[in-house]
Amino acid sequence: MKILNVHAHYDDFELTAGGTFEMWRRALGPQLSARVLVCTDGAAGHHCRTRQETAAVRFAEQAESAKIGRYEFELLKFPDGRPIPEGGILDRPFLAALWKAIREFEPDYLFCPPLPTDPLMGVHTDHLTVAEAVRRVAYLINVPHAFSDIYPTDESHSEPVKTPVIFNVYDGYMFGANQYDLAVDVEDAFPLIAACAYCHRSQFQEWIPWIGRHEIRGPTTIEEWSEALRRRMARQRQDMRVGGDRALEFFTATAWGAAPTMEGLERDFPSLCRTHSRLGALGEKLSRWGVL
Ligand SMILES: [Zn+2]
User: Fold this and answer.
1) Cβ–Cβ under 8 Å, residues 169 and 176
2) Separation of 94 CA from ligand 1 center, angstroms?
3) pTM above 0.90?
4) CA of 250 to the centre of ligand 1 (A)
5) Which of 45, 91, 122, 150 lies at 20 to 30 Å from 217 by C-alpha?
């Protein structure tokens, strides 16, 4: 089983799918291969560090999180090796780099940010770019020479490449307009999620309190940070109109890649919360896509 998280920034993984990846790892042990692909270089978004310094600090923070969370971490780069800046680039080299990264790993499941369905909602341009890029590249994953002009290969021989089932994660920038099909109970993984996310000190302790957008007041200890994370998860549950106080992560099925099946999802997803997952509505959606 291979699972891949594709998101814009350092820290996005921990706040949207980190618990699910951990529950999956606990269920499958060495049978699971988990990878996190970060699609921007993290140079933007600090009030007193240079771009170069910020990018280096953020890379090290994600590497520290990967060590604690026991997942592979890869930073996406343009085909010529340049880092990808924040600010929403969606061009052919970006799609080519994403195509190659997904084909090389061949995930069974891919998790990425959603596209807004309500044009009145705010967005983060990088989240939007990654969502749009995954959607656009999804069909091309198994198209052999889609980008072989950029990544030269033997064009006279091609092996099929697995197309993953693609899920959207929760997006805090779209508060009020998120949807979901599956709720995963990640309560048992909460201490690990907190420890991984706490690695991103240049964000949660420095930059995010400075910008004041996310109701986080610079935590100085892991205990303070865990409380802030609990409040953040409570807001997510409120957005999804879900009660209780257990830590949950939310996912929406898409038909961007391979079509999911109910049987496959119920077999593969760890710690599926049957109380809050919308399996009936998901079944109807899958039947509209022609699969059950
Ligand atoms: Zn982000």
Assistant:
1) no
2) 17
3) yes
4) 16
5) 122
